[in-house]
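SEVERITY: medium
COMPONENT: batch folding queue
REPORTER: lab tech (J.R.)

DESCRIPTION
The queue accepted two submissions in a row. Attaching both inputs and their returned structure tokens so the on-call engineer can compare them side by side.

ATTACHMENT 1
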Amino acid sequence: MIELEGVPELIDPVMVAAFEGWNDAGDAASTAVAHLEREWKGEVFAALDAEDYYDFQVNRPTVFMDGGVRKITWPTTRLSVVRVGGEKPRDLVLVRGIEPSMRWRSFCNELLGFAHELGVELVVVLGALLGDTPHTRPVPISGTTSDADLARRMDLEETKYEGPTGIVGVLQEACTHAGVPAVSLWAAVPHYVSQPPNPKATLALLNRLEDLLDLRIPLGELPEDARAWQVGVDQLAAEDSEVAEYVQTLEEARDTAELPEASGEAIAREFERYLRRRDGGGPASGGHATAEGGDAGSYLRDGPGGRTRPPMPPKPETEQRPETEQRPEADPRPESGPDDEDSPGE
């Protein structure tokens, strides 16, 4: 660990982490943490030693000019701290970096060492996976944990996922063994528009984080960016009849699956968020994780124009697989992408 500044004394700190790579479809999770850091003017106080965890032939350093002097930025993971004001101020320890190439257990132990030293009370890890979800519907967000008591108290899913995992899943499990409460929040990104950025998925993660931590996050231009993103995808889909048909199939499957859940609970959450905001209160390369736990390329392309062309959907009679076969790493519900616990992350 390279300490850049002295370790600050924090108030009721929560660690929020995200890592680029397999756990970060559409860069949705890492962009969410970057948004928090930017909006609350986070100050970096520590960084992991890049030599210990990164293969520089996989994640290459970059060269830039600073006042006429050439400098190098090394791929690493940095920790910053932000103060959230309000009636009950608290601090967030933001962890943002790249999924390490090696020594994952040591990597997690270093982060947990800092969490212990800073008195972190909860670790929230953000992730995003590729799923069979339409871009026209709300982004499915799953909140999962390995702690049964925490699942009950915070209205989360207790993870039952088995399969390939990334650094998100490893870090959450390390927290569990260390006795540190940990939660994973996963966003499902449409696999047919997986190229970053995906502001709609980033916005959904931040909204879920607001609910989880009972605080108000300044969203800036993110809502407008999310609307513009959806309009752009709508236009692209309208230009290709196969894509439009596929999106319609996903919409029908999603609406059918969620019809029994059209309860007042989701409406109540949105109304509570609206009241908080009205009152001004309230405290890369190599593919990504998929709902099935495997890898997927960032795009499926067709023709020299590079137009996205998704695979044709499965026949209706085969779409509803048994829960045990399709329970995604982040999503227990069949058609929603990640609703089971730590999707690819676990």
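ATTACHMENT 2
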Amino acid sequence: MTLAPADSAHVSRGVLIEACPTLGLDIEGAEPIRIAENAIWRLPGKLVARISRPGGTPAAAREIAVANWLAGHGIPAVRPAPGLDQPITIDGRAVTIWEELPPHRDGNVREVAHLLKALHALPEPDFDLEPLEPFGKIRTRLDQAKAISERDREWLYGYTDELEAAWHQLVESPGLSRCVLHGDAWVGNVASADDGTAYLLDLDSFTVGPREWDLTSTAVKLTSTSGITRQDYEDFCTVYGADVTSWDGYEVLRDIRELRMTAYAARITTEHPDHPHARHETQYRIECLMGAQGQRPWRWTAVP
């Protein structure tokens, strides 16, 4: 069943009501922070609950392990609440509890670059991180995208196949870098506190693969979507010490990122069928990928 926003909040609250007594936590006064890919709730005692979509327990367990690993290496990131055996699973949804961050704003590209530079220099952890595989989530989102036309969906499936073939050829090339990746590194997944500390958020996409994948997330904001200025991007490259757009494989990673963003918008359109901007933006992105909206950069805007 497709969940409207109010229904999503209702479902996640029900999970929270069941989870909190199991974890020994008080739910009185809990309030939603964000109901999206995951449901985020503020709890008493400066704690935050994160509730996954169904089937999210393996990713949540990995997220807890990653957070503890980052803490051990001194990388500022969200921290699991101490003393709890987590995640727990309620009705197929993973529940994790985190320490609330101090007052903060979204990060900026320089802060993203600083954190990625520190992260990419770390040795791989002693627990398993799966190799980067971009296409499973894309196909799942397209499967869920019932609000777009069948013609457009079939085209997107075919385009996905083309990009996957190009991806496999790229990752098999000699000399490609390999390190721990955030997996979805952009300013929205960095929080900058009032004291100047920048924290990594949303650790559930951590993986291992070419560092260029993490760098492409910011590069496409310039080259594809007009989300940042040229000066912003030059600052990012200066801090990190590399410009991924000058790499021969950039176009493949750029195209995959654009497709992921389009598939996400298509799924959101299905979940929010009465949201006119989501529907318009999804169609615009599809037409961009099809070549019907001129040359990059386009003017992509956020969907709910």
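NOTES FROM REPORTER
The first strand starts at residue 31 and ends at 35.
No errors were logged for either attachment.
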